[in-house]
Structures are given as structure tokens and as C-alpha cells.
Amino acid sequence: MSDKIPLGLSVNGQIRQAFVRANDTLLHVLRDEMHLTGTKRGCNQGVCGACTVMIEGKIVRGCLSLAANCTGKEIKTIEGIESNDTLSPVQQAFLDCGAAQCGFCTPGMIIAATALASSNRKLSDDEIREGLSGNLCRCSGYVKVIDAVRSVCGTEPK
């Protein structure tokens, strides 16, 4: 552990401690050090979106973010989206609309959709597609995912 340094990160509203190397990604620290496994390791190149988390309310790829650069910032993972054992509106919409298939991409999709919904404005289908464009799913045609986000953002289908 001599090459590791202590690091405190604010994750889901709590300061969490980990020992990390200078080049450890946020994805590695969340999954392997903090055991928050909802954030998935997919392509490990920032393309698929499975590792999507929010930092300061903006979506980022955990596989491309160095953990050491995240100190002093609020990190939110899929485990921090619910409140008081109640699903968030986006999680509930995904459930109600049947938007999850195998579930591998779902945490990243929900994080991205939560960021979209936080704008508190009605979004067009094109804006929803654009906002989710960095999250790939091999199981669905995205229709139910867009339906779920649309239901939260109060838009009408085209």
C-alpha cells in the first residue's frame, strides 16, 4: 500500500475514504474500493456510458475521471438516486415503462436521465435522445427508455 494515498470523496452525500494510486479512475475506486457496484465497467474507454455518474450535477464517465481529481466535489452514483427507500421519479418511470432489459446499461441511463430531468423543463424527443446519446444499450430499441424520460419531463410523444 506504499504507493497509495488516502483520499476522501463525497459520494452520495457521505464522505468516503479510500486508498488510491494517482492513476486510479473514479470507476475503479467506486466499484473496487467502495463496493458501489451499480456503476458498471463496460468499454473502459468512455464510449458506452455504463460507468456514468454525476459530479456536481453533471454527467461524467467514471472510467475517464481520475479519482484524485474528484476531491471536494459531490459525486452521485445510482446508489444515491433513491431517497428514504423510495425510488426517484426517474427510477420509477423506468420501472413503470419497462425501460430496463438486462439491466447492465440501466444505471448509467438513469443517471443521464436524472441529469436531463434536473433541468425542470419540458424536453423534446430530440433533446432526450441527445441527452442519452452517450449511453449505449444492446438489448433495447431505446423506445421505452425515451418513454420513461418523457414521462418524467412532461413532454408529449411525437
Q: Structural class of the helix and strand makeup?
A: alpha+beta
How would you characterize the largest beta sheet? Answer: 5 strands, mixed
Alpha plus pi helix count: 5
- Determine the N-to-C terminus distance: 56 Å
* Spatial strand order of the main sheet: 2-1-5-3-4
Element order, helices and strands? EEHEEEHHHH
Helix content: 25-40%
Strand content: 15-25%
**Rg estimate, integer Å:** 16 Å
Query: Average pLDDT across residues?
Result: 92
Overview in brief:
This protein is α+β, with helices and mostly antiparallel strands. The chain has helices at residues 26-33, 89-97, 106-117, 125-132, 143-153, and strands at residues 5-11, 14-20, 52-55, 58-61, 74-76.
Strands, helices and their partners?
Layout: E1 5-11, E2 14-20, H1 26-33, E3 52-55, E4 58-61, E5 74-76, H2 89-97, H3 106-117, H4 125-132, H5 143-153
Parallel strand pairs: 1-5
Antiparallel strand pairs: 1-2, 3-4, 3-5
Helix pairs in contact: 2-5, 3-5
